[in-house]
Design brief:
Largest sheet: 5 strands, mixed
CATH topology of the largest domain: Jelly Rolls
Distance between the termini: 137 Å
Strand order of the largest sheet: 1-3-8-5-6
Radius of gyration: 45 Å
CATH class of the largest domain: Mainly Beta
Number of domains: 5
Helix content: under 10%
Oligomer: single chain
């Protein structure tokens, strides 16, 4: 019953308690209406105006920047998931011309934050790009005139729940770099040279050559006129960025010299001729690398020549294995090698072998040349020495008895260099030998037929009596060198009969 109906019902009746009741009902109804309005106002105050897609904040012009308290921002079931959708807020922008747009989100209360770009309608949105915490919280898109793009800024910690704290969104147009076209190539006056460009809005102009290494997108240009003939090397520091070098006077008559791209961590190195102008096309590869790229051009560093060989203490009996371990910081690679082994022999191989006919100190020289003509060389002295000792005789008694101490003598021959030699003496036991003694002595050089003696003693045991005989074995080892002929470093005695 409304107010007019109530008046009609009471017209003509005595003005008593019932009239007062009617006035009370009218007052209560009005109070409830005011309270309801108040509650609606309070509820509205606790929400975020652009919390939903339908109420997206319209961006009228660029650059645009805003900071919002998203403590009460929520995730709507119609919001797209999978890309920074926790406690989301929405923005929209319709460009009047084709342009490159970057949206960047940040906020002190968002340890993980992101922004995503979409086209379409609510419930049927198409993802254009996603920039979550791992992509730096930003997106860069190529926007088409007349198309409305929606930016959802949110925390990155899953679907559902609220946002938190202040969130700052910046949206701006990225203009092409000044050296976007060949005719506006950045001129390099001297080396070293370093420049950093954002390739996000860079274009490929009509007639621009395509690199043989990769498809070129978002290119910028540099030019360099060499004043001296020398090798130069160009690098780009961003994954997905590539470099192509050309010669020629105009875009229509460029000739490619070479190309490399960062995916293989390979610089571009070549020999620059004095008076020649070289053009460098720096590009993103296959649409990737739409981030700032640092281009660096410098004089190519010298290669480093080095080699190793094995064995490290060769004798005239050894065939030595040499290995070229040279390194080129400019990664151009080596085109040739030249070995001089110091005894008149040479080689051009990467892994040559060589054997020296006699002892001596031989200076081995290696020279290397890179594909672009840089050279380096190194030398090492290879010492060839014949270190060799031999056990010529091992004397023992014919027989012995338990408790008897017997003498065993080892005779060692050395005709080359003074050596420190360790001789180990072992006796036979069931299943093999067991060491019984060891002596280390200096062994001088003596003429053939003359020897150095190693004297051992041994006391016969009951175990020896059980086996009935003892066979002794002597092993000689040069302490500080490798023996060239180790086969004559071991000798067995005649059996000693134990009675």
């Amino acid at each position: 019953m409304n107010t007019s109906d109530l008046h009609r019902e009471t017209r003509g009746r005595p003005r008593g308690g019932f009239g007062r009741l009617a006035r009370l009902l009218i007052t209560l109804t009005a109070g409830f209406a005011v309270a309801a309005i108040g509650l609606g106002t309070a509820a509205h105050a606790d929400t975020v105006a652009n919390d939903s897609f339908a109420n997206a904040t319209v961006i009228s012009s660029l650059p645009f920047s805003t900071t919002e308290d998203t403590s009460q921002a929520t995730w709507d079931p119609s919001d797209p998931s999978g890309c920074s959708s926790n406690g989301s807020v929405w923005f929209s922008f319709t460009p009047s011309s084709d342009m490159t747009i970057r949206a960047d989100v940040s906020g002190s209360n968002y340890p993980y934050m992101g922004v995503s770009a979409w086209t379409g309608t609510q419930g049927s949105l198409n993802l254009v790009d996603c920039g979550n915490y791992y992509q730096g919280g930003k997106v860069t898109i190529s926007a088409t005139a007349g198309t409305t793009y929606y930016f959802m800024a949110a925390a990155c910690c899953g679907d559902g729940g609220n946002g938190g704290g202040n969130l700052r969104l910046s949206v701006s147009q990225i203009l092409p770099p000044g050296n976007d076209d060949f005719t506006n190539a950045t001129s390099i006056g001297g080396l070293p040279f370093t420049d950093r460009e954002d390739l996000s809005a860079a274009t490929v102009e009509p007639g621009e050559p395509v690199s043989s290494c990769f498809s070129t997108n978002n290119t910028v240009w540099y030019s360099f006129t060499a004043t001296t003939t020398q090798s130069i090397t160009a690098t780009a520091d961003q994954y997905g960025a590539g470099i192509t070098a050309y010669t020629g006077g105009s875009l229509s008559n460029l000739s490619q010299l070479g190309c490399e791209f960062y995916s293989y961590s390979q610089p571009l190195t070549f020999r620059a001729q004095a008076g020649t102008t070289y053009y460098f096309q720096v590009a993103s590869w296959n649409g990737s690398g739409l981030r700032p790229v640092t281009f660096h051009l410098d004089v190519a560093p010298d290669p480093v020549a080095q080699f190793v060989y094995y064995p490290s203490d060769p004798s005239s009996y050894d065939t030595i294995q040499f290995s070229d371990n040279s390194y080129d910081p400019a990664r151009a690679g080596f085109s040739s090698r030249a070995w001089d082994f110091g005894d008149g022999a040479t080689s051009t191989g990467e892994y040559p072998t060589h054997r020296y006919a006699a002892d001596g100190d031989y200076t081995v020289h290696l020279s290397v040349t890179t594909a672009d003509g840089r050279t380096a060389s190194t030398s090492q002295v290879v010492q060839v020495r014949m270190h060799d000792v031999a056990i010529t005789k091992l004397t023992v008694p014919n027989s012995a008895h338990v408790g008897q101490t017997i003498s065993i003598t080892v005779y060692l021959q050395n005709t080359h260099y003074p050596e420190t030699v360790e001789v180990d003496l072992s006796k036979s036991v069931p299943g093999g030998f067991s060491q019984t003694g060891s002596l280390t002595e200096s062994v001088p050089v003596k003429q053939a037929g003359q020897t150095t003696r190693f004297a051992f003693s041994y006391t016969v045991t009951n175990d020896d009596k059980a086996t009935g005989k003892i066979t002794f074995r002597a092993d000689a080892n040069i302490r500080d060198h490798r023996d060239a002929l180790p086969a004559d470093n071991e000798l067995l005695s005649t059996p000693v009969k134990v009675g």
